[in-house]
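Repro:
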Amino acid sequence: MSTDRSTQDPEAEATLELWLAREREVRLLLAPPGKIPAAEVARTSGLDFLERIGRGELPSPPIMQTLDFVPVEAERGRMVYQGTPKSDYYNPIGSVHGGYIATLLDSALGCAVQTMLERGFGYTTLELKVNYVRPLTDRTGPVRAEANVVNVSRQIGVAQGRLVDAAGRMYAWASTTCLIFPMPTTTP
């Protein structure tokens, strides 16, 4: 099955237009990239923190600029990032490097866990498991890393997600285990 956008059906084309419109909206709101102090992360709940980034009240994470992806949905237990693969991300065998896919999925999975955290808590990835299903190319068009929480306890968060295009074709699926911990409330 081709991943060329010109072969997509009308429903996929309509989805693609919605995705691109949402990406334009988000890009207008995002602040320039920058480092956010840990104390700022601790100041609000995880969902509030991510929403503040989405509204441009806090700097956007530098990785989003480096790999040109943006947050398009955030709600309790769910996070979605969107990016468009480029030939700049190719590996030596002629497709997008798995690290690009893993980064989008790791971002969505971790932030899905973060949406569940109360004020004063943060997380870090303990484990990331990615399964690649089909190659991603610069002809694929926009893709979304969609992640949902499986379970969050006092110290551990688990989420699963997938990377899909506007036609619903899956390119990879992943799971994560995150460690949850109290964040410092002051910056050293």
